[in-house]
Known about the structure:
Phosphoribosyl-aminoimidazole Synthetase, Chain A, domain 2; 7-stranded mixed beta sheet; binds adenosine-5'-diphosphate; single chain; 13 strands; binds magnesium ion; globular; CATH 3.30.1330.10; 4-stranded mixed beta sheet; disordered N terminus; alpha+beta
Amino acid sequence: MAAQRRGLDETTLIRRYFQRPASSRRDVVLGIGDDAAITRLPPGLDLVTATDAIFEGVHYPPGTPLRAIGHRSLAINLSDLAAMGARPLWASLALSQPRARAAWLREFAAGFFALADAWQVALIGGDTVRGPQGATVTVQGAVRRGHHIGRSGARPGDGIWITGHPGDAVAGRLQLDRRGGSRKLRQSFLYPQPRLREGRALAGIASAMMDISDGLHEDLGKLMQASGCGAMLDLASLPLSPQLLAAVGLEAAREMALSGGDDYELLFTVPVRHEARLARLARGWTVPATRIGTVRKPPGLHWQLEGSAWTPCTRAFQHFG
Ligand code: ADP
Ligand code: MG
């Protein structure tokens, strides 16, 4: 509270933009307004917790619409729950703003709550401070006891799969300040959709899973390392979107898909015996699932293109000038 000296006081702002008449969830015993929140988890479930922060100039360029920042701050966290195979329940939000401007808070809250409501996530608390523009969100969700999907379960022979179209988000980010260009690419950066339905459905099918946020190549390395395996990957099978190909051409599209980051798609491995089940399941998804390679025993990532070895050029697209 002390951090807010000028303008509208913090309590008024929280009440106006973040406190809702009644919690949407019955498992919230006590929400915003007291010293801490109280929630209840039924027996038989494990609690899953993830935290991610986004700050201007680090995770999004200045001028990014506030509604999108509100959406993204929650979406990137829900993506982590999706990657565990968890169902989302509650969120808390630590918001940092240079000064409390009602219009900013309204827009941010609109983006945040549109996504929260879509997944019945209750905002149960947070903090509001004066500082550089950014938001730190913690989400909590649940999985059936012992039924989470971790990073360490991939085994040699498993297929390697991803959802969606890697590379779109970074291309969209690079187009943000341009008129024209592809709206679909820009939207995939501004409004990533957490793959919660898909992540949960993969329980009992995927042997390992994570969400890709730092670029497919780097995240693949993490997944394989956690599983103590390596991978053989087929460059030609990368699911590049027509919009990405049209915007940057085949070579840059491959490079962006491998090292662009900000995709928030699921990367997972599936034992061959579950492939038919996966195919049946994925037919009902709104996002495609594509097999891009195979887990192998020897460590390291080996990309192939038409039968010959191919070395990825992993340029970083991470920085805002
Ligand atoms: P305290 O000083 O006891 O931490 P605050 O004034 O910081 O109290 O917060 C009052 C209530 O508002 C608490 O329930 C807190 O969780 C909630 N809160 C503060 N900021 C936010 C925010 N940005 N979003 C959601 N809840 C918030
Ligand atoms: Mg506080």
